[in-house]
Write a structure and sequence with these properties.
single chain, alpha/beta, Glycerol-3-phosphate (1)-acyltransferase, three-stranded antiparallel β-sheet, 10 helices, 39% helix, 16% strand, globular
Length: 280
């Protein structure tokens, strides 16, 4: 039986690529985007202490550009400095599809979204950022822009329980208006794939949106986009601490599901409150 390839031998599977100097060099660009392009208003950063180790759980918005994520990163670095270790879980396909972008992301702190990497980061004493909803979340319909969509992905709950770290939710309003997702044709495109059409770069896109945005106007497929200059409001929510932690709790499927539902409920409540405040 042939030996299966070791994914950790591939590019990106290391915590040592993070480079504070590269992060510092990007800060002026992020600062301009933060203050003048997206005109970000933020709150709740007092919920993370100077020495807290946390699992940051966000709701993705705004297509592949994900501007709220970038603005959250900027806020983290300007408050805690570029030396404080934090790693973000990124879809492994990025290393295959756009290796140059992936290499830059590595230096900012991105690692492949895999339990091994998340566990290694936590054991190192770092905080970890995860967007459980992934592509389905970041390209959800514009009509669902004010809905939390974590896609049923409960891996982050098991991670928090197994390593005794509190979950700190990150939410935003406005970022999903930087492009307008009209529909998702993934089921139709998947049917074509099953009939023989190959995936581009042999990567299952998971979504196939139709959206309005820059620079394409009307775009079909998960293409890169330039975000529209819409004001973004972000919020760091109070930490969520569960009743039980440890290996046993992380392997209790009913308890994991209850914790997942609690996180979704609290994030939705916080997002509803933020949207109401923005609209007032």
């Amino acid at each position: 039986m042939p030996k299966q390839p070791d994914p950790t031998a591939q590019p990106g599977w290391s915590l040592n690529q993070r480079n504070p100097k590269v992060i510092q060099s990007l800060m002026p660009l992020w600062e301009w985007l933060y203050h003048y392009y997206f005109r970000v208003q933020t709150s709740g950063w007092h919920n993370i202490g100077l020495h807290d180790q946390v699992l940051l759980v966000g709701s993705h918005n705004g297509g592949l550009a994900a501007p709220d994520m970038l603005m959250m990163m900027y806020d983290w670095f300007r408050r805690f400095g570029t030396e404080r270790p934090v790693y973000g879980l990124m879809h492994p396909c990025v290393w295959k599809a756009v290796p140059q972008v992936a290499h830059l992301a590595e230096q900012v702190g991105a690692v492949p979204a895999h339990p091994k990497m998340a566990i290694a980061a936590l054991r190192k004493g770092a905080s970890v950022l995860v967007y459980p909803g992934g592509a389905k979340d970041v390209f959800r319909l514009h009509a669902l822009r004010d809905k939390i969509c974590l896609g049923g992905n409960q891996a982050f709950i098991k991670l928090a329980l197994g390593h005794n770290v509190p979950i700190v939710p990150l939410i935003s309003s406005g970022a999903h208006d930087t492009l307008i997702v009209l529909a998702d044709l993934y089921q139709q495109v998947r049917q074509l794939h099953e009939w023989g059409m190959p995936w581009f770069l042999d990567i299952d896109p998971e979504v196939f949106p139709i959206y309005l945005g820059l620079p394409w106007g009307l775009a079909i497929g998960p293409l890169p986009n330039i975000p529209l200059p819409v004001q973004i409001h972000t919020r760091v929510c109070p930490p969520i601490i569960f009743e039980r932690y440890g290996r046993e709790a992380a392997h209790d499927s009913d308890y994991v599901e209850a914790c997942y539902n609690l996180v979704c409920e609290k994030m939705q409540q916080e997002l509803d409150d933020l949207v109401r405040e923005v609209e007032q």
